[in-house]
Every structure is written in structure tokens, then in C-alpha cells.
């Protein structure tokens, strides 16, 4: 391990995690945002479900480790929600078992240390037609109808076990033309979808009442920016502004006046699955 030691943020899940450093992925963006304050560690396993995750949980997150993660971001559910295969094999996990598995995963992670925090990413929607075009008959049994109950049940579980949840199901669908702009193959994320995920994660981290805070602006920056060199470039200011696209802009009083009566206007129709 290289030093100095930093807080560890572990991404744990299936292909949504494994591929999170590809093509402007959300994991790579988090690593960039936290590049001087925390280490992003990827533990992603394409094709896995919550049943597989539970089998390796003690190996990936041993309770006797000297250093425990400060934050674990977990994604499972997309594979679990697939239609059962006639052979009895395949990634499908019944909803009741999925929730029981995720409960056990959450309890294990929260028990690693009194400062380990957990965020669950709820399964996102998918583009079923794109899946068929890209994979043909190689992938069958994925549908939004089957996936949605898993997303809803997982968010309910988050409230029960004091785990933060990111509602990717809703967040993705708020993007204009999300069916065509958010997926590379109907399942995995484009840079646009990854940007949505990053914003949602940062919102949760920023608003959480965790002590200490794990928001990137709140963590100590490793080593001085300029070591006190006179007239040096203000790198500190650059660091605080370069990730502004992932943080909400401050709302001015003028903006508040323009928006405060929006509830009196009829909302524009928005399609939801």
C-alpha cells in the first residue's frame, strides 16, 4: 500500500461497477473528483447477483482488516431480477431472497467499523429494444416490468436498515430521451448516464449527516498545493471549481422569485415506465 493513507471508498457490485471506469464511467469520475482526498477501489463482478456477492462478502470485506472502508457503494439487482431460466440455472434470484441478501450485505458492511457508511444504488431502467438489437437471443429475460419491483423493494430496505439509497430508477428517467442517451447496449451506462449517477451519489454524500463528512470538499487535501511558494498559481481555487458540473449551482433570490410560483403552472407531461 502506498501512503499517506486516505479514506477508502469501495465500489462493490456487478457489471455496472466493473465497467464503471470505462468510457467516462461513474467510477472514473468519482476517482477524479476524490483524486487528492480519498482512494476509489473497484470490486466489480460482471454477471453476478446478490447470491454470489453474499458468498464472497467475508473475503472482499474481512471484519479483521486493519483498515476498513469509509464508504461502500453497492449495486446489485439487475441480474437478480432477470426472468427465471427453465433449467433452474441463471442469475435470477427471487425478490424475497434478493432483499434478504441485501439486508445481510448491508448489516455486514455497517458492522465493519463505526465509521463505515453504505450507499445502495437501486437498479436502473433499461432499453429493452436496444438489448434485443445488441445481444439478440444471447440475453433473454430482462425487462423493466421485472426490474422495477426490485428497485422499489431495495429503496424500502434502505430506510429500514439505515443505509442511504440512490433511486437510479427515477433519476435516469428524468433525463430527456433517456432510452437513447443513457445506454451503450440497453443495460450499461453511457457517459451521460454515469454523470447522472455521480450527481446522485454526491447529493447523498453532501446531505448525509455523517461525522466526519465524506463529501470531497470536506475531506483533507493531501499535501499543500504550493508549499507556500510566493506568487504561485492558486491551484486550491482550481481544485474547488473544476468539478462544478457535478454540484448544484447556488440559487439566487431572482431565481427563487421566478420559480416560487411554478406550482401554480400545470406541469409538462413526462413519460415514466
Description of the structure:
The chain is of the alpha/beta class and 273 residues long. It contains 11 helices and 5 strands; from the N terminus they run E-H-H-E-H-E-H-E-H-H-E-H-H-H-H-H. It has a 5-stranded parallel sheet, with helices on both faces. Helix 3 runs parallel beside helix 4 and helix 4 packs parallel to helix 6 (144-161). The longest helix has 18 residues, at 144-161. It is globular.
What can be said about this structure in brief?
With 273 residues, this protein is of the alpha/beta class.
Strand content: 5-15%
Major sheet, described briefly? 5 strands, parallel
Helix content: 25-40%
SS-derived structural category: alpha/beta
Q: How far apart, in Å, are the first and last alpha carbons?
A: 46 Å
Tell me the number of helical segments per DSSP (H or I, 4 or more residues long): 11
**Which geometry do the CA atoms define?**
globular
Secondary-structure element order, as H and E? EHHEHEHEHHEHHHHH
User: Quaternary state, please?
Assistant: single chain
Give me the Rg, rounded: 20 Å
Unreliable runs? 251-271
Mean pLDDT: 87
Major sheet: order of its strands? 2-1-3-4-5
- The total count of strands amounts to 5
